[in-house]
Amino acid sequence: MKTFTYRLKAFLVLAGVWLILIYPFSLQELYTGLAIALLLVLLPLPGNRVYAEIGLAPKRLIFTVVYIFVLIKEIFRANIDVAFRVIKPVLPIKPGIVKVKTRLKSRLGRLALANSITLTPGTITVEIKGDELFIHWIFVDAGDADTATQKIVSQFEKYLEVIFG
Amino acid sequence: MEVLAIIGALISLAGSLFLLLAAIGIFRMPDTYNRMQTGTKATTLGSLLFFIGIGFANPSWWGKLLALTIFIFITNPLSSHVLARALHFIGKSPLLKGSNDLEVRDDLAVEKAEEAKDTGKGDQV
């Protein structure tokens, strides 16, 4: 039963990506794609197990949509911030690597958190060890680097905790 | 139809502006970490706006543009994370050349040094 659920989820993800990709639908393409997705899901590939962590409860789906908007807002804010840093005559940068702890347990959740942090300009996830993330910052404030980092992490964590459990 | 094309063109222009700023950033930034901060991140907002602009001009392409955006948003951070990780692994400190700022924070190097001490390997990091 457990293998069935993650296979179903993997199939839904693959089928969804295929549907988006062939957008002006034609039945022929649809059938071929679904057949190949089914084959991939039934093969005993090790990576398939990750899909078991995807939840399909309505609350999670709503939080996913909200999360995408939060992420886009954050990308806009940070991109403009970095753009201004680039065009200033004296580069206002003070790089450093800061350690942050995360509350997330699931592997997919941590992956999504690290990816979101890297997507927002000004921060790159350099390394993950257990529940500790090491983040390279373009400007480390001397005083409140820890609180600032914790803020950006918990902002994403809030949603990812619900989405990935 | 005309209006949509003009809106699309304007949004694409904004996107290309961010790509230009990223290119300038690659020139101006002093070390590899900071070049990655500006360079690899151009693909986020720059290409996002670019795709939205193209989507306005050609509404039937929305599906493919959405797929492209998803793939870029999944793969771009992974590649820049791997580059940064490899860079730190070979021992590059985030300290800027020329500034002898001893207060530069590098929690990862501290952690690695402690680990090396625990396993008795000495400081080979």
How does this structure look, described?
- The complex is a heterodimer of chains A (165) and B (125).
- The radius of gyration of chain A is 19 Å and the shape is elongated.
- Chain A has a 3-stranded antiparallel beta sheet, covered by helices on one side.
- Helices cover 60% and strands 12% of the residues of chain A.
- Chain A folds into 2 domains: 2-53, no CATH class; 58-164, no CATH class.
- The mean pLDDT of chain A is 81.
- Chain A has 5 helices and 3 strands; from the N terminus they run αααβαββα.
- In chain A, β2 (123-129) and β3 (132-137) form a beta hairpin.
- Chain B has one domain.
- In chain B, α1 (2-28) packs antiparallel against α2 (32-39), α1 (2-28) packs antiparallel against α3 (42-57) and α3 (42-57) runs antiparallel to α4.
- Chains A and B meet through α1, α3, β1, α4 and β2 of A and α1, α2, α3, α4 and α5 of B.
* Low-confidence runs of at least 5 consecutive residues of chain B: none
- Give the overall silhouette of chain A: elongated
Count the beta strands of chain B.
0
Order of helices and strands of chain B: HHHHH
* Portion in helices of chain B: over 70%
Features:
heterodimer; A: 2 domains; three-stranded antiparallel beta sheet; 12% strand; elongated; B: 125 residues; mainly alpha
Helices and strands, with pairings:
The complex is a heterodimer of chains A (165) and B (125).
Chain A: H1 2-21, H2 27-42, H3 58-87, E1 96-101, H4 107-119, E2 123-129, E3 132-137, H5 145-164
Antiparallel strand pairs in A: 1-3, 2-3
Chain B: H1 2-28, H2 32-39, H3 42-57, H4 62-89, H5 107-119
Summarize it.
The complex is a heterodimer of chains A (165) and B (125). With 165 residues, chain A is mostly helical.
